[in-house]
């Protein structure tokens, strides 16, 4: 049960900090801004799904801001205690290194999920009273998916934190992945697009077509997989129809990003000399 103790302490420390209130306020204001932008100028009804699909929520809050906050919040989870010397004290208690890593993942995941859920649901109270078609199931489901995306990036950051010997390296790794996945992913794919155009298509030895390659690249990016899952969910088509396999692959990729980096970080952490 010791990993639960690590997670509880990590979460309680986060709840007592001022930044949690700040994050909750920020998410609430941004979702409220999306409501204001989507609301028809001349009055009338509008859909809560339109709010969730707006640029402010989908591309601003969800896939740009939340990954950044999660990475910044979690990159020092393990290596920070290692640098301060408190990690040796923590491991002198009945905690294994696996307890520390996965306890940190759980605790910091709760710390990012709480402001996300509150930040989305507070505007929902006003939305439910306003002139719109409020789809409760879709709104709550999207909120939980968004919180899960934050947990995925927490897992990535904690994995780096456990594997690295210094906070500087952990921060560089986490921020490097953020830059790759969020602002630079399109630039990474651009040379491939040019190559395929100039070469006349995919080489014969590669068992994939051009669209399949770009679909795979989209899946490899956790924000791309999230957009596939959340978009299908809001349209009421998740795991159904001709794209069901794509939805399953995207959901599997998100779970993989949540679990694999902490496992790799733990593998390196187990062999580290503290």
From TrEMBL:
Record field: transmembrane: 20-41, 61-80, 112-136, 142-165, 177-196, 246-267
Whether Transmembrane helix counts among this entry's keywords is yes
Q: Which UniProt keywords apply?
A: Membrane, Transmembrane, Transmembrane helix
Single GO MF descriptor: ABC-type transporter activity
| Gene Ontology CC | plasma membrane
Keyword set includes Transmembrane helix: yes
Task: Please name the PANTHER family in this protein's record.
Answer: ABC TRANSPORTER PERMEASE, ABC TRANSPORTER PERMEASE PROTEIN NOSY-RELATED
UniProt protein name: ABC-2 type transport system permease protein
Tell me what organism the protein belongs to.
Halogranum gelatinilyticum
């Amino acid at each position: 049960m010791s990993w639960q103790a690590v997670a509880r302490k990590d979460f309680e420390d986060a709840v007592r900090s001022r930044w949690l209130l700040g994050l909750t306020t920020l998410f609430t204001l941004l979702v409220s801004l999306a409501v204001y932008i989507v609301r028809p100028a001349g009055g009338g009804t509008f859909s809560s799904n339109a709010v969730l699909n707006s640029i402010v929520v989908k591309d601003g809050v969800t896939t740009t801001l939340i990954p950044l906050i999660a990475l910044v919040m979690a990159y020092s989870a393990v290596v920070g205690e290692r640098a301060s010397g408190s990690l040796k004290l923590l491991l002198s208690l009945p905690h294994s290194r696996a307890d520390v890593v996965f306890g940190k993942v759980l605790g910091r995941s709760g710390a990012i999920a709480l402001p996300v859920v509150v930040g989305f649901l507070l505007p929902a109270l006003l939305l439910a009273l306003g002139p719109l078609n409020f789809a409760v199931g879709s709104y709550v489901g999207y909120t939980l998916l968004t919180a899960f995306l934050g947990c995925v990036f927490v897992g990535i950051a904690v994995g780096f934190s456990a594997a690295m010997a210094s906070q500087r390296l952990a921060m560089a790794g986490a921020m490097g992945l953020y830059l790759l996945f969020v602002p630079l992913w399109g630039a990474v794919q651009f040379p491939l697009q040019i190559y395929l155009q100039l070469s006349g298509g995919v080489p014969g030895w590669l068992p994939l077509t051009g669209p399949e390659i770009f679909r795979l690249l989209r899946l490899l990016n956790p924000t791309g997989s999230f957009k596939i899952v959340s978009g299908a969910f809001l349209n009421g088509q998740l795991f159904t129809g001709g794209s069901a396999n794509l939805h399953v692959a995207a959901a599997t990729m998100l779970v993989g990003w949540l679990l694999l980096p902490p496992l790799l970080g733990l593998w390196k952490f187990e062999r580290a000399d503290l």
